[in-house]
Amino acid sequence: MDIKTLIKKPWNKDFHNGLSVMATVHDFDRELHSHDFQELVIVLGGESSHLFLQEKRTIRRGDILLIPRGVEHGYESPKKLQIINILFDASKYSDLHI
Questions:
Q1: CA 80 to CA 2: how far, in whole Å?
Q2: Are 88 and 60 in contact, with CB atoms under 8 Å apart?
Q3: Cβ-contact 29, 43 below 8 angstroms
Q4: Are 60 and 43 a contacting pair, CB within 8 Å?
Q5: 90: which DSSP letter?
Q6: Torsion of CA 23, 28, 32, 38, to 10 degrees
Q7: Rounded to two decimals, what is the model's pTM?
Q8: Under 8 Å between Cβ of 41 and 64
């Protein structure tokens, strides 16, 4: 399945249950930002510099990133960066013992 098909899927984007999954393509810089939830990023294609914890690293297909709540991160000079973002609020799942 290609990224264009994934983007058209009816993902849960409302975050009402503490979970949202979406596919996106970045072709533009995304300045440093943070969230009040955790983010799991799966890189499907393309590449970019990822800014995280005051470091810059190249990310590309096959990379998986876990971004904790409140930690600034961003993207610089992405080249058709195709990602799946899994946004979750771990506090909503504190009763799970995994």
A1: 13
A2: no
A3: no
A4: yes
A5: G
A6: 0
A7: 0.80
A8: yes
